[in-house]
Specification:
- With about 240 residues, the protein is an alpha/beta fold.
- It folds into two domains: about 60 residues; about 150 residues, no CATH class.
- Helix content is about 50%, strand content about 20%.
- The protein has five helices and nine strands.
- The strands form two sheets. Strands 1-2-3-7-9 form a five-stranded mixed β-sheet, with helices on both faces.
- Strand 5 and strand 6 form a beta hairpin.
- The longest helix is centred in the N-terminal third of the chain and has 47 residues.
- It is elongated and about 90 Å long.
């Protein structure tokens, strides 16, 4: 809707301005003012330029949203395959003021997965290629564009999930933060595998859960955690008016 608005705003403004400048003198029988004509042209160009910039910004945002959505879908499809190996997978877990993209529960532990989709483009001249992300344990380097905040976000979300599951089940639960980066290859520097946060591509989903976390789960613990996650997802689907 906003796209159509910005596309029409400039031409409509110009039409109204020029119609006013030429229309009023025509019906009043007076010649059009050159000054007003120039002002109408300048106003039309200015508004059209502003609308064009807003339209470009909006299209960039829409492209980013689409890229993010496609990345989440690709990650979800690969994580769902883990259910063949006895894992349970939840998507878009509703939290307090945010969602966790994916939660995986299995014998090796609980994983809070955040998907980060980045376009492939060379951002600096001193990188070898534009499709390898370098992970050193503290920073993700996307071809010269360094992102530390995504790791901090994943850890905060895993901390929230840990606290909530501990309260909901009555048993101490530790969720492992993980980041999925669709479409990239990952170069893991020495020491990065010792960090608590795991970084993987969707096709490496099995490698994410292959190694046990600091809290492996038995069948009973898995069942209790899955029950709480299932209930939270179901509550989010209940209409707000249903409880009134």
């Amino acid at each position: 809707m906003n796209v159509m608005y910005y596309m029409a705003f400039g031409p409509m403004t110009g039409f109204i301005a020029l119609a006013t400048v030429f229309g009023v003198p025509y019906f009043s029988g007076e010649p059009a003012s050159n000054f007003l004509v120039y002002m109408a042209i300048v106003a039309t160009l200015g508004v059209s330029t502003w609308a064009g910039l807003k339209l470009r910004q909006l299209l960039v945002e829409l492209q980013a949203l689409r890229l993010g959505w496609e990345g989440e879908v690709a990650t979800a499809e690969e994580l769902n395959k883990l259910m063949r190996d006895g894992f349970e997978v939840f998507h878009d877990l509703p939290c307090e003021r945010f969602n966790i993209d994916h939660v995986v529960v299995g014998p090796t532990g609980v994983f809070a997965v955040e998907t980060k989709t980045r376009s492939k483009q060379k951002r600096t001249d001193d990188v070898d290629n534009d499709y390898t992300a370098i992970f050193d344990g503290e920073v993700l380097d996307f071809a010269g564009w360094r992102d530390r905040r995504c790791l901090e976000q994943a850890r905060r979300q895993a901390k929230w999930l840990s606290d909530w599951l501990t309260s909901a089940t009555g048993e101490r639960t530790v969720a492992t933060p993980a980041i999925a980066i669709p479409g990239w290859r990952i170069e893991r520097l020495k020491g990065s595998t010792k960090q608590s946060t795991r970084v993987f591509t969707p096709r490496e989903a099995k490698s994410l859960v292959r190694n046990p976390t600091m809290q492996p789960l038995d069948h009973g613990a898995m069942k209790r955690i899955v029950h709480q996650l299932d209930q939270r997802c179901r509550q989010d689907l209940v209409p707000r008016s249903a409880g009134r």
